[in-house]
Design goal:
Elements lengths: L18 H10 L2 E8 H11 L9 E9 L2 H4 L6 E4 L2 H4 L8 H10 L1 H7 L3 E9 L4 H15 L3 E8 L6 H17 L2 E6 L2 H5 L5 H29 L4 H6 L5 E9 L6 H10 L13 E8 L5 H12 L7 E8 L7 E10 L17
Parallel strand pairs: 1-2, 1-4, 2-3, 4-5, 5-6, 6-7, 8-9
Antiparallel strand pairs: 7-10, 8-10
Helix pairs in contact: 2-7, 5-7, 7-8
């Protein structure tokens, strides 16, 4: 018979890993997703996002604002703020000159590179046409790619009424951004005139801001779900292989079980700010969420419906999430990527600034 010293109930086990150590390991292995608001418009978006809670068990989500305007940056209450080109602009802005914005970003190279440490997914939010966002966003994208990050930009184009010079600046900035991004989701402000012509200007802008916010929130959601399935994000990387423009949609329905999935898909596809044709996409990532009542048949229904909207060669990946809080509702989020560069023709401008 094998005997040993008596076991003391109060004696703490010394083998294995403690709960605190395990939680620390889980946290250290989370993918870091960072949303960068560049320039005045991008920083304003980050300011609104700071009032929301962005959490994921699979991603470490952080917000950062960068601007040449110190006064404006001081009003952004986020974890990380970067003053661009402190010596060049002295915190007074870029004067609507993209070259100044680019020079300011290059002056702040060390701060940008430090901000990109461990970032696996960089989402760049910017308004094109002005100085800081237009000039600094391509530089940030270039630095993020140097660090092997996935780079997705969400950019807005100016109103035509803002003048030829601002539109030319926006075209140059978009062309430069395109070189370093895995996908660009483009918002055209002129579409406000088409879909909300009778709204007061401030209300129309607020509508556009809300749509952009939903796109960012949905993008964070769909990316973090990809991280849950595969910590190397192979699914996301797969649909981003062809680069190009991207479009995004979110739809929610609480209709009958026979109609709710199709209704949510249609709502997601019919965003007035989707300026590209989803049929041209080479990759499509779909997230379908609902409570325990969501059936296999509904999943197939969503896949069949979305499959009809894209080309036969499109690589389609679907994720499904069960959450009791949906309480009979279903939510469809899609991210279509790799839309051919001809969608850029009306904005193509190769005479950009030196960003290297």
């Amino acid at each position: 018979m094998i005997t040993g010293p008596p076991f003391d109930d109060d004696e703490e086990e010394t083998y294995g890993i403690s709960k605190d150590q395990l939680e620390e390991l889980v946290e250290s292995n989370k993918l870091r997703l960072k949303v960068f608001g560049m320039g005045g418009a991008g920083s304003n978006t980050i300011k609104r996002m700071a009032n929301k809670s962005f959490t994921s068990p699979y991603c470490e989500i952080r917000l950062a604002a960068a601007n040449t305007d110190a006064y404006h940056l001081n009003s952004i209450n986020v974890q990380e703020r970067i003053i661009l080109g402190k010596q060049k602009t002295r915190g007074r802005g870029a004067g609507a000159d993209p070259q100044v914005g680019n020079d300011a970003a290059r002056e702040s190279q060390s701060e940008i590179e430090k901000s990109l440490e461990r970032v696996k997914i960089a989402i760049i939010v910017t308004g094109l046409g002005g100085g800081t966002g237009t000039g600094s966003s391509p530089y940030l994208a270039m630095k993020a790619k140097e660090k092997q990050a996935i780079v997705i930009a969400i950019a807005s184009m100016p109103f035509e009424s803002e003048g030829v010079k601002r539109m030319e600046n926006a075209k140059k900035g978009l062309s430069e951004l395109y070189q370093f991004c895995d996908s660009i989701i483009l918002f055209e402000n002129d579409r406000i005139r088409r879909y909300a012509p009778k709204e007061m200007f401030n209300l129309a802008l607020e509508m556009a801001d809300n749509i952009m916010m939903k796109a960012i929130e949905g993008l964070i959601e769909i990316v973090s779900k990809s991280a849950r399935v595969n910590t190397e994000l192979s699914d996301l990387e797969k649909i981003l292989e062809m680069k190009g423009l991207g479009i995004f949609g979110v739809g929610i329905s609480d209709s009958s079980p026979e109609q709710r999935v199709i209704e949510a898909c249609e709502q997601a596809l019919n965003s007035p700010f989707n300026s590209s044709d989803i049929y041209k996409a080479t990759g499509l990532l779909i997230s379908l969420s609902g409570d325990e009542s969501l059936t296999v048949a509904e999943r197939e229904q969503a896949m069949k419906y979305m499959k009809q909207k894209v080309s036969p060669n499109c690589n389609i990946i679907q994720r499904q999430e069960t959450d009791p809080s949906y309480n009979g509702k279903v939510k469809v989020v899609f991210f279509a990527t790799g839309i051919a560069a001809e969608g850029m023709e009306r904005y193509d401008d190769r005479s950009g600034h030196d960003i290297n």
